[in-house]
Amino acid sequence: MYSNARQRLSSASMSMRKTQGLTLIEIMIVVVIIGMLALAIIPNITGRADQAAVARAQSDIQALSGQLELFKTDNFRYPTTEEGLEALVNKPNNVKNYPKGGYIKKLNQDPWGNNYLYFSPVEGADYEILSLGSDGIEGGEDYAADISSLD
Questions:
Q1: Closest CA to 70 of 30, 34, 103, 104
Q2: What average pLDDT values come out for the chain (151 residues) when binned by 10 residues?
Q3: CB–CB of 84/71 below 8 Å?
Q4: What residues contact residue 84 under an 8 Å CB cut-off, 6+ apart?
Q5: CA 51, CA 94: separation in Å to the nearest integer?
Q6: Per-residue pLDDT at 2
Q7: CATH number at residue 57
C-alpha cells in the first residue's frame, strides 16, 4: 500500500516539475527571438537620430541665414569673418543700426556640440555658415559630412 502511494506521489511531483518552469531550450528560443527583433528595430532607431541631427543642423543654418539677411538690411553689409555669428547676438563696434536685444538671444551649437563656423566673404557667395557634421572634422561622408549654407 505504501509503495503504491509512493509511486503516485512520485509521478505527481514529476508532472509538476515539468510544468513549473521553462526549459533551457525554451529560454534560448525566447532570447534568439528577442535578439532578432532588436536587430530589426535598433538600426531604424539609430538612423532616425542621425537624420534628425542633420535636419536640425540644416534648420539652424537656415534660421541663422535669415538673421544675417536682416543684419544686412539694417547695416548694408554682412558681418565679417572676424565679427562672426556673434554679431547677431552682440552689437559689433562699427554698426549703427542694431536692434535692442540683437538679432538672436544666443548662439546655439550644432547637434553634435560644436560651434557653427562662419566665413564672409567666401568665393562665389557673400557668406557661408558651416557645421562640420557628427565627426567635427572638415569633410566626411554620410552623417559625418559637412553641412553648409551653400548646399
A1: 103
A2: 56 57 83 83 72 92 95 96 97 93 95 96 96 92 92 89
A3: no
A4: 118
A5: 40
A6: 55
A7: 3.30.700.10
C-alpha cell at 59: 534648420
Q: Which of 123, 130, 121, 110 is nearest to 82 (CA)?
A: 121
Q: Looking at residue 9, what is its pLDDT? A: 54
The answer to whether 71 touches 88, Cβ cutoff 8 Å, is yes
Cα–Cα–Cα angle for 37, 39, 40, rounded to 5 degrees: 65
Identify the domain containing residue 13 by its residue range: 2-148
- Cα angle vertex 126, ends 125, 132, to 5°? 75
Side-chain half-sphere of 143: how many Cα atoms within 13 Å? 15
Count the domains in the chain.
1
Q: b or e along 61-100 (b: 16 or more beta carbons within 10 Å of the residue's beta carbon)?
A: beebeebbeebeeebeebbeeebbbebbeebbeeeeeeee
pLDDT for 28: 84
Q: What is the CA radius of gyration of the chain?
A: 32
